[in-house]
Amino acid sequence: MDPIRRNILATGVAAAATAAAPHVFAQQAAQGVGAFKFYEKGNVRIRYQEVGTGFPLLATPGGGLNSRISNWPNAVINVMEHFKNDFRVITMDQRNATDGESTGPIPVDNPWDAFADDQLGLMDHLGIRQFAFFGNCIGGSYGLKLMERAPDRVVSGVLSQPIGHRPEDPEVMIKSNGMAWAKEFRERRPDVSMETIEKYMHSLYRVRPDFVYSVSREFVKNCQTPMLVLPDDTPAHAYQVAIDVASLAPNADISVYPWKDPPELKARTINRARNFLKAHLPQTAAR
User: Among 124, 114, 105, 103, which residue's Cα sits nearest to residue 58?
Assistant: First the structure.
């Protein structure tokens, strides 16, 4: 893993530039949501926000390891804005995201489960048993892990622009996001060794070097949770992986691609995602 160390240490000014985030009040005004709140469990502290009323919808922002609340205004689908009239939308900074305020240990052995622990723990804190899920980018992998860990709690999910493994570029997630995150994190937390960060990256993206990283193809093949996949095709958002998820999952649907332009098509896709989630509410909630 020496190349990771060299690349992380070599990542400089560009990482600092991408780490810039809006001021707290600007974030809140842009999204029309209330004050940030915090949930704590042991040595983990999670910052979250809520907007709207109705059936709970857990929405995880994109941004790879920098999945944080302030990313929503620039997301291709700002769930906090578009879905607030239909759901009780709950979002959060993921653990240790740059410019977020959620903190916790670096889980070198089971990082995907640790993210799921944070997300399920927040739902428990809010007294929420069942919920729908919307995940952008890395949120696709979060969502599938939640479906594996808590199939009786996640009633449906939208996987928007999911990340995925590229055989022709197996280090793509580390290069596209991981190195910049690691450099900034080391500046905040010099007590965490480079060896720990290398083990973390290895567990995230190399232990299961295929598909969506967080779960296996066999799990998706047997996953009964309804899901809607919105494909993308960028270095980190592997189009073939999105197709594979939709093809394997027995209750999956997929949108046309591309769907972000023109604006009319994007609006129809947002409506389709909203209607998909509504169509799969528990009977008691749908009344």
Answer: 124
Residue-range domain boundaries for the chain: 2-281
Which among 53, 63, 129 is positioned nearest to 92, based on CA atoms?
63
Taking the domain 2-281, which CATH number applies? Answer: 3.40.50.1820
Confidence (pTM): 0.88
Contacts for 197 with CB less than 8 Å, ≥ 6 apart: 4, 8, 106, 182, 185, 186
**How would you label 90-109 residue by residue, b for 16+ Cβ within 10 Å and e otherwise?**
bbbbbbbbbbbbbbbebbbe
Whether the bond between 73 and the residue before it is cis, its omega within 30 degrees of 0, is: no
Q: Which pLDDT tens digit goes with each residue over 57-105?
A: 999 999 999 999 999 999 999 999 999 999 999 999 999 999 999 999 9
Six-digit token string for 235: 């270095």
